[in-house]
Specification:
Layout lengths: L11 H16 L4 H9 L4 H13 L1
Length: 58
């Protein structure tokens, strides 16, 4: 969430960007729980971004 500008405080602008990203992921057929699992498994931001690019290009 820090990628979207969240600093740990209630910020509607950052949460709005995150919500928009989640909606875009859903429309692309990407499960947000998979992304959470990848992140929690130690994948870097760039590794997850590469995965998303490959998934979307299919």
């Amino acid at each position: 969430m820090s990628y979207y500008g969240w600093n740990g405080k209630d910020d509607t602008q950052a949460s709005g960007k995150l919500l928009g990203a989640l909606i875009a992921l859903r429309h692309a057929g990407i499960d947000k729980h998979l992304l959470i699992d990848l992140n929690d498994s130690g994948f870097t931001f760039h590794e997850i971004a590469d995965y998303l690019e490959r998934k979307i290009q299919k």
